[in-house]
Amino acid sequence: MNDEFQDRYLDHQERKSKSLENFDGNNKTEYSLLEQTTLKEVIMNRRSQRVFNDISISDEEMEWILRAIQYAPSSCNRQAIYVKEVKPTEIEQLLVGGKNWINKANKVLFLFASKEAYKSPNEKGFMPYLDAGFAGQNIYLMCEVLGIGCCFVNPNIREENKELFKNLYNQEEDYFCGAVALGHYDKKVKKPPLRDISKILRK
Predict the structure, then answer these.
(1) Residue 162 included in any domain
(2) 195 belongs to a structural domain
(3) Which of 19, 28, 155, 196 has the most Cβ atoms closer than 10 angstroms to its Cβ?
């Protein structure tokens, strides 16, 4: 039986070995000062947006969001994260963190990690969620560039709804890693208070 995740894992191990031997890969990418400045602004302007307008996300915009997931880092290049698009109005009561606002999003994507991708028992408790976290951050940054609001919702499902969630959205019984609410917006939320940068690097 073909195992695409294991194939990518083994290919990754081979490439990693060659890179450690100083294998000649692609040339280093050089970014202009303008490109560097733009990326810094994108990172610093990113927000979690929970108020949306009625403008629909276009097919082209959606394709770029999916491409952001495609290019997200993943453990040993397994690329195990996938999404399911669900109707915002159908899930407000399922996700604890989405109450009173997520139903007004234009789109909601559930993030899943394929269970078959993670073989080692030592990594199953955290690696799928790390991979989903990298994918989620890529979604955030792509949405910021596209002018789309984005907000991550944790995978906490109300106990009484867990069986319903499984039957409707996760019959595969894969790892559910959370959701992202997406939509265009008129006014951006203000920058939240940030901790002092000196508290980030500890000694």
Answers:
(1) yes
(2) no
(3) 155
Quick one: pLDDT band at residue 163, thresholds 50, 70, 90?
very high
- 90 band by pLDDT with thresholds 50, 70 and 90: confident
Domain that holds residue 108: 42-188
The reported pLDDT for the residue numbered 93 is 84
**pLDDT tens figures, 41-81:** 999 999 999 999 999 999 999 999 999 999 999 999 999 99
For residue 181, tell me if it sits in a domain.
yes
Q: Does a structural domain hold residue 111?
A: yes
Paired tokens of 17: 């070995």
Give the span between the Cα atoms of 58 and 115, in whole angstroms: 31
Say if CB 75 and CB 142 are below 8 A apart.
no
Q: What are φ and ψ of residue 153, in 5° steps?
A: -120, 130
Q: Indicate whether this model's pTM tops 0.85.
A: yes
b/e sequence 47-85, b meaning 16+ C-beta within 10 Å: bebbebeeeebeeebbeebeebbeebebbbebbbbbbee
Q: Are 165 and 98 contacting, i.e. CB atoms less than 8 angstroms apart?
A: no
Q: What would the pLDDT profile of 4-41 be if each residue is shown by its tens digit?
A: 888 887 787 877 777 766 666 678 899 999 999 999 99
User: 168 has which bridge partners?
Assistant: none
130 close to 75: Cβ distance less than 8 angstroms: yes
Count of domains in the chain?
1
